[in-house]
Amino acid sequence: MTVFKLFVIDDEESIRDAAQLFFGKDHEVTTFESAEAALTAMASRSPDLVLLDIGLPGMSGLEALMAIRRTDPDIKVIMITAYEDIETVVSAMRHGADDYVLKPFRMEILETSINNALEKIRLRKEIQILQESYLREHLPCFIGDSSTIQEVMDFVTAVAKSPDTPVLVSGETGTGKELIAKTIHYKSPNHAKAFVALNCAAIPEELIESELFGYEKGAFSGAGAAGKKGMIEEAAGGTLFLDEVGDLSLGAQAKLLRFLENGEYYRVGSSRKRCVNTRIVSATNRNLEEMIENSRFRRDLFHRLAVITVSVPSLNQRPEDIVPMAKFFLVEYGKKFNKPMGGFSPDAEDALRRHHWSGNVRELKNCIERAVLLGKGSELSLDDLGILGGILPPPACGPDGFSLPPLMPEGVDLGEIIASVEKAYFLEAIKISAQNASEAARHLGMNYYAFRRRREKLGL
Question: 121 and 212 share a domain?
Fold first, then answer.
């Protein structure tokens, strides 16, 4: 049986003693004869439920209720009143009381009220445990005890409590911006609803509006016969994550702004106004304020998207988290490839710490995946990782001067080598172009949209 913490605040000793005697056998009960004393105790330990007398000397029960709500809105509060003054009761409920009982009360009535409140607390705690379990399992980029990431996660947890406040997540490529968005969703009151992600950079400009808002049948050439819900509608009551929001066209930005202002939108080809409550979490690795100055992003939309901003630190800003995260990936890929691994050699661990992770968590994950797949021993060595404290080891040289890995007697995985080379060039192009996709595409001799599609396929 779960033991809950109960505070009883009443100036009548008989009430305090009765509550202690009746509920103290199953729960931790602490009694107070004044609201001031209870609030002082609350600063060091928070109760699950408070029984609060309305007619207290000094600070009144209603004043104490409002102070408790400011301290911790999750605390359940049951008001105790000597007479059923409808106006006072309504005021208490309006300020956040969960229930009320009348003096002199029958203990079975009070017990029912308390048990109902405690059941809600128990369910909330179970949901919280499930949410945290999901986050630990699915959000490895936030493994670690560094103060840097702990501060971010504490902030994200606070932000998540609001079910509909827009959030803008910024950070370098590969830092885990989508995982921050998922954390916000799964820690929010909307966690049971859908989380829908849309990469704005991967959708051609002429299709982005229909992807966001949906369309009616016959709205344009190729439109489905039954029409289609948009992403905003798919995420109704939940969270829509807009990745690379800086790539939205100005026309799409205007329509998104209208939705953020009043929750209203139109499907493409429809005159029927629709309304849903969908939280928007957006992300970018671009400087939106600079884009505003260059008239490529709307200032009013920026302020609507960035009601709350979360800046995700790069992996190089929290080096103490690199090895714990690498060990997590080691276990994950050991299971995937049925190759239980015992850990890293000392020089491999040292190289992990000293390597400059320009691709952040994504690069680390790819590195460990490749090392586990190709590694021969029970632990990963420096050679398995393919890094030398931040400098890639020099590969063999091909007949035309192009650097290639050596052809080993046991053979090579040509597809893996090609993908590694392609990823390396993409990462370098992205780096030297300062995250400018058009410039990176030019360096690689590709058109903009081909670059975007290939980049997404490579997971960069």
Answer: no
Q: How many CB atoms lie within 10 A of CB 14?
A: 9
- The pLDDT score that the predictor gives to residue 390 is 44
Torsion angle of the four alpha carbons 65, 66, 71, 73, in this order, in degrees rounded to the nearest 10: 80
DSSP H helical ranges for 61-169: 61-71, 86-94, 107-138, 147-160
- Reported as a single tens digit per residue, the pLDDT across 272-322 is 888 899 999 999 988 898 899 999 999 999 999 999 999 988 888 888 889
Q: Which of 313, 340, 372 is the last residue of a domain?
A: 313
Q: CA-to-CA distance for 287 and 350, rounded, in angstroms?
A: 34
HEC readout, 345-373: CHHHHHHHHHCCCCCHHHHHHHHHHHHHH
Tokens of 126: 């179970």
For residues 306 and 321, state if they share a domain: no
Contact between 262 and 304 under an 8 Å Cβ cutoff? The reply is no
Dump pLDDT digits (tens) for 70-125: 888 889 999 988 776 677 778 888 888 989 888 877 888 888 999 889 888 887 77
Claim to verify: residue 307 and residue 181 sit in the same structural domain = yes
Q: What is the pLDDT of residues 405-460, one digit of tens each?
A: 555 555 666 777 777 778 878 887 887 776 778 778 888 888 777 888 888 777 77
**In sequence order, which residues have a C-beta less than 8 Å from that of residue 70 and are 6 or more positions away?**
none
**Who contacts 387 (Cβ-Cβ below 8 Å, separation ≥6)?**
351, 352, 355, 367, 393
Which is nearest to 437 in space by CA: 427, 415, 452, 418?
452
For 48, counting Cβ atoms within 10 Å of its Cβ (0-12 exposed, 13-18 middle, 19+ buried), the class is buried
Answer yes or no: are the C-beta atoms of 151 and 176 closer than 8 Å.
Answer: no
| Segment among 159-168, 356-365, 400-409, 450-459 with least mean pLDDT | 400-409
For 26, list phi and psi in degrees, rounded to 5.
-110, -20
Question: Which H or E run includes 19?
Answer: helix 13-23
Give the integer Cα–Cα distance in Å for 327 and 333: 10
Instruction: Choose one of 72, 98, 129: the last residue of a domain.
Output: 129
Q: What is the pLDDT of residue 302?
A: 95
Tell whether 120 and 148 lie within a shared domain.
no
